[in-house]
Design a protein that fits this description.
Blueprint (H helix, E strand, L loop, with lengths): L14 E4 L13 E6 L10 E2 L3 E5 L4 E6 L5 E6 L9 E2 L3 E5 L4 E6 L5 E6 L8 E3 L2 E5 L4 E6 L5 E6 L9 E3 L2 E5 L4 E6 L5 E6 L4 E7 L2 E6 L3 E6 L5 E6 L8 E3 L2 E5 L4 E6 L5 E6 L9 E3 L2 E5 L3 E6 L5 E6 L9 E2 L3 E6 L2 E6 L3
Antiparallel strand pairs: 1-2, 2-33, 3-4, 4-5, 5-6, 7-8, 8-9, 9-10, 11-12, 12-13, 13-14, 15-16, 16-17, 17-18, 19-20, 20-21, 21-22, 23-24, 24-25, 25-26, 27-28, 28-29, 29-30, 31-32, 32-33
Length: 345
């Protein structure tokens, strides 16, 4: 008679299931690496990665740091209110914006607070770049904060609240505001380079090859000139458009019409579309020539060049945030569960 022993490991902060491939075989792409259940809800905050850690903000007001290989919790840090944004990652610290009105700098390895800076309620994800942390605020201010000390270097007032996440390229910071404009601000002079009307609320921007790409709530993917803000082209969908993702000259977005679109970044012409997840426009992840998109069934991997389905991983409880990927694993969160999935790259 063969006895089988099942062991359940519980702790007060997390329950983790470790998936595995068959002994001695390579992991199968699209299968679970691990699954973690953590208190709180990840309804807005998307995972952010370093080499060995996944960071997730929760609506219970805490930031959780998970081991990227196992899903085990490394540490957590509690703020005074819900966390809607992803963290910014520096060399030794992560930067966390909370709706409690503060930006926090935390030691990446321990989660200990280094400093905090009052910035007003934040949906904007911080960007750490060359010793400065850029973050937008619901009070309409873009803050540039010293990454070491937490002191405000300078700020810029837009026409309304800033819920998008800043992007810096060639000495200019790009973002959108709730006044339905995209902005470009010179990081040296702190002066506006241009602002461009989008006709509706806009997403965070993606910048490449002299173009600024923005999704809008008027169902368009818009390409602007990075130097002037002039509209270069618009690509129309039938729903709200997500924050754009870029790779190999292709712009990838999800739309509230239930499709993922790949668009030529130069011409604005459609390359392909894929029926994904109705009424969801969380941005896909793009890594190593593969697009990872939320679908009705869970998470799908698509060829960037063609849109052909590579694999699908059936999951429960997804659809609350955007996936993020490294060379071997895709991470996605929803409700109170986080998944690590073998990608096959």
């Amino acid at each position: 008679m063969i006895n089988r022993i099942f062991v359940v490991i519980l702790n007060l902060s997390a329950l983790v299931f470790w998936g595995s491939s068959s002994w001695g075989l390579a992991p199968v792409p699209g299968t679970l690496k691990w699954e973690g259940v953590i208190p709180g809800s990840f309804d807005f905050s998307s995972p952010m990665l370093t080499q060995d850690t996944v960071f997730l903000g929760s609506c219970d007001g805490s930031l959780y740091a998970l081991n990227a290989n196992t899903g085990r919790q490394k540490w957590s840090f509690s703020t005074g209110n819900c966390i809607y944004s992803s963290v910014g990652v520096g060399q030794e610290a992560v930067y966390l914006a909370s709706s409690d009105g503060n930006l926090y700098a935390l030691d990446m390895e321990t989660g200990e607070k280094i400093w905090s800076c009052p910035t007003g309620s934040n949906y904007s994800s911080p960007l750490a770049f060359e010793g400065v942390v850029y973050v937008g605020s619901d009070n309409g201010t873009l803050y540039a904060i010293n990454a070491s000390s937490g002191a405000v270097n300078w700020d810029f007032m837009a026409g309304a609240g800033i819920r998008s996440s800043p992007v810096v390229e060639n000495g200019v910071v790009y973002f959108t505001a709730d006044d339905t404009h995209a902005y470009a601000v010179d990081v040296a002079t702190h002066q506006k380079v241009w602002s461009s009307g989008l006709g509706s609320l806009g997403t965070s921007a993606a910048v490449s090859s002299g173009r600024v790409y923005v999704g809008t709530y008027s169902d368009d993917l818009v390409a602007l000139s990075a130097s002037s803000g002039q509209v270069l082209w618009k690509f129309k969908t039938n729903g709200f458009v997500s924050t754009p993702q870029l790779m190999n000259g292709i712009v990838v977005v999800a739309s509230y019409d239930g499709k993922v679109y790949a668009v030529n970044g130069t011409s604005g012409m459609q390359v392909w579309d894929f029926a994904a997840n109705p009424y969801s426009f969380w941005p896909p992840a793009v890594q190593n020539g593969t697009v990872y998109a939320l679908t009705d069934a869970g998470l799908s991997a698509l060829e960037l060049a063609t849109g052909e389905l590579v694999w699908n991983c059936t999951l429960a409880g997804t659809g609350a945030s955007s996936p993020v990927a490294d060379d071997a694993t895709v991470y996605v969160a929803g409700a109170d569960v986080v998944y690590g999935i073998y990608s096959g790259n």
